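Field reference: "sequence" (input) and "structure" (output). Example, Diguanylate cyclase (GGDEF) domain-containing protein:
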Amino acid sequence: AAKAGRRGPVVYDEQRHGSGRHRLEAVAQLRRAIDEGELTLHYQPKLRVATGRVEGVEALVRWQHPERGLLFPDAFIELAESAGLMAALTSRVLDTALAQRREWSDRGLELVVSVNVSPSNLVDERFPDEAAGLLARHGVPATALVLEVTESLLMEDRERAVRVLAGLREAGVGVSIDDYGTGYSSLAYLATLPVTELKLDRTFVRTMTGSARSAAIVTSTLQLAHALGLVFVAEGAEDPVTVEALAALGCDVVQGYQLSPPLPPEQLERWLGTRATA
Ligand code: C2E
Ligand code: CA
Ligand code: CA
Ligand code: CA
């Protein structure tokens, strides 16, 4: 019954099944997954170009489903959002990521952890306090956390979103505009928001070495981001030529398969270890 997604079937397809028993079952399963720890995080390194060091990682959620195996976010994020489970999912992800960050720092590994947040988080005015509370509970400094928000998300309830972002910034948490360029707001408009980082969508990065158009978008976005005092991040760098081109342009941070795919924590640690001794 599930539609074939980018990397496999979705847990539930809103369009095809409407509401009904199938949906209720999928929601119940997801609720259980959130409550009982079936969600895990993989971490993808973010390379600081100027130093050649991995200064941070992005936490990406996976669902270790008892029957279906490892599921990617495309298979359940939409359902979480529509079923009102996103607040609970984000809390779980944030808690897990900060516990991991604390464990790493206890072993001398200082990484900035980026966590993705959703529309429902940004219209929840208690969210900044929740984030601050979790940081305190895990003894993690706010500067070690970046929250990634998508552009579309910022358009929905703008005033409330700005208040929530301002609250996060006041707490000392970094804020990144994710998937930049896929919506239709201008960077001039987005720059009025309290953010620290701009992450250009991978569609432009992936094609920049073969397309003058994409290259122009990368170059101009980077210049504008820098003019506005934002850290410029390129995601989806899949080959060495792209990484070199980004470095030559003055890109601050690079993320993508060329460096490493998202990895479970132990594998990430091993990967960091081999890099350090290479
Ligand atoms: P995103 O935030 O844009 O995350 C980057 C996605 O690009 C990840 O997919 C990552 O595996 C993939 N990626 C990384 N490097 C490359 C590359 O070089 N080439 C290509 N083609 N892809 C690359 P993933 O893990 O499947 O996540 C998909 C989306 O699901 C994320 O997109 C994000 O919007 C959402 N997501 C993931 N984790 C969470 C979460 O904890 N909470 C929420 N609300 N959303 C999440
Ligand atoms: Ca992201
Ligand atoms: Ca992105
Ligand atoms: Ca995305």
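Strands lie at 39-48, 53-65, 69-71, 112-116, 145-150, 174-180, 197-200, 231-234, 253-254.
The pocket of calcium ion (ligand 4) is lined by residues 179 (CB under 6 Å).
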